[in-house]
Amino acid sequence: MIDKQKAGTTLNLSATDEAGNTSEVMKIKVLDCTAPVITKVNEVSDQSTTVSGTTEAGATLIVKKNSSELVRGKADDKGTFSLNISKQAAKEKLTITAVDAANNSSEENS
């Protein structure tokens, strides 16, 4: 058993039998299977012209109204994002999703 490894890490694996024979080394790259989390979305009112908050650095953010995409943009290298939107009607429901470089998608936030 090994400790959990960071995505992108390269592991060198080999096997040794009871006689002491060792296999060739096989290199395996750890895949990113973890969806990004949107850690914060600032309040959006009927006067707002941006959707902003924090998520995984470099993630793509998608803001939708119903099933229609309003805007798409990227979080910066610190995970901060600010996406321009037009003013929305009061009580309009918007959803936001984050997708990372490995194409893992967050849960939809509203």
Put simply, the count of helices is 0
Cross-sheet strand order for the largest sheet: 3-4-7
The number of strands is 8
Largest pleated sheet: 3 strands, antiparallel
Shape: rod-shaped
| Stretches with pLDDT under 50, minimum 5 residues | none
Which percent range fits the helix content?
A: under 10%
Separation of termini? 39 Å
SSE order: EEEEEEEE
Mean pLDDT: 95
Main structural class: mainly beta
Q: Give the radius of gyration.
A: 21 Å
| Percent of sequence in beta strands | 35-45%
What does this structure look like?
- By secondary structure, the chain is mostly beta strands.
- Helix content is 0%, strand content 35%.
- The chain contains no helices and 8 strands.
- The protein has strands spanning 10-13, 26-29, 40-41, 50-54, 60-65, 68-74, 80-84, 94-99.
- It is rod-shaped and about 75 Å long.
- It starts with 9 loop residues before the first strand and ends in an 11-residue tail after the last strand.
- The mean pLDDT is 95.
